[in-house]
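From the methods appendix. Each design record in this collection lists the tokenized structure first, followed by the designed amino acid sequence. Records were kept in a plain field format so they could be parsed without special tools. The example shown here is representative of the layout used throughout.

RECORD:
FOLD TOKENS (276 positions):
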């Protein structure tokens, strides 16, 4: 039995509204509790604070290494995403134009990387990072994050490039443009929606990762933001208002990036990741 258009429209909006509430409720709880006193969180965890407390934010910004940890996370996240976009775009451009059985195997190898969690190789990765002399530094995270991000980058960008009309690049070849000139002048500009999609897909796991910083880094000056948050957990008591203040500040870059790139993200999903 098919739903009438109005009923289908109402049903869709109803499902999206429920989903929006489920997504925003934890965010609301985190933000309002970050402005409460420590014991007020237990009395009324979901309501507005009776007295707005900004001391947690001031303490986090002034009396802790929040700025240092935030800068470390920003550095490794932005650097890793830029490297993933560059290497992923080059690999996708090569695979999209390489018509051979070997290219299909290489493409399948990248896609397989989306199915296997990289954490299963943590011990071997630790040995490799130690052999490279990167242990206990922020630079130890770059090769791991790049390896994490390349599979989805190659998958999305390859499908996107394959949909670009061949006549467009053929005209550039007739005009005397080489492969890199075509990539730089034509392909990279058409890839902007897909690049935004890849960037947002990788932003969240890179920014929120705690596993690999916990394994690779012990030095305080190289710790990332979420790893620094673990210092706020005490053995006998925990100041949840400070922790929620840090987590609220940590969520700001992700939210701002998504809001600024949402149109490109949706366009990239429909045009590049879904092949019709």
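DESIGN:
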């Amino acid at each position: 039995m098919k739903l009438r258009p109005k009923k289908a429209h109402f049903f869709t909006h109803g499902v999206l509204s429920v989903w929006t509430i489920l997504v925003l409720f934890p965010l609301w709880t985190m933000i309002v509790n970050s402005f409460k006193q420590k014991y007020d969180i237990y009395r009324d965890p979901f309501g507005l604070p009776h007295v707005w407390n900004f001391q947690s934010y001031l303490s986090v910004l002034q009396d802790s290494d929040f700025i240092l940890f935030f800068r470390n996370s920003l550095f490794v996240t932005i650097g890793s995403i830029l490297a993933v976009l560059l290497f992923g775009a080059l690999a996708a451009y090569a695979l999209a134009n390489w018509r051979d059985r070997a290219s299909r195997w290489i493409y399948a190898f990248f896609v397989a990387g989306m199915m296997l969690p990289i954490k299963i190789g943590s011990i071997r990765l630790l040995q490799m990072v130690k052999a490279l002399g990167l242990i206990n530094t922020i630079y130890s995270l770059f090769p791991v994050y790049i390896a994490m991000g390349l599979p989805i980058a190659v998958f999305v960008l390859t499908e996107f490039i394959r949909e670009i009309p061949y006549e467009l690049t053929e005209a550039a070849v007739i005009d005397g443009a080489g492969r890199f000139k075509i990539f730089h002048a034509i392909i990279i500009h058409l890839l902007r929606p897909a690049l935004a999609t890849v960037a947002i897909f990788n932003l969240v796991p890179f920014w929120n990762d705690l596993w690999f910083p916990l394994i690779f880094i012990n030095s305080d000056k190289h710790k990332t933001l979420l790893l620094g948050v673990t210092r706020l957990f005490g053995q006998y008591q925990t100041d949840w208002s400070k922790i929620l203040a840090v987590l609220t500040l940590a969520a700001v870059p992700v939210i701002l990036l998504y809001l600024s790139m949402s149109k490109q993200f949706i366009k990239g999903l429909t045009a590049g990741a879904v092949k019709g």
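APPENDIX NOTE: The first helix runs from residue 5 to 34.
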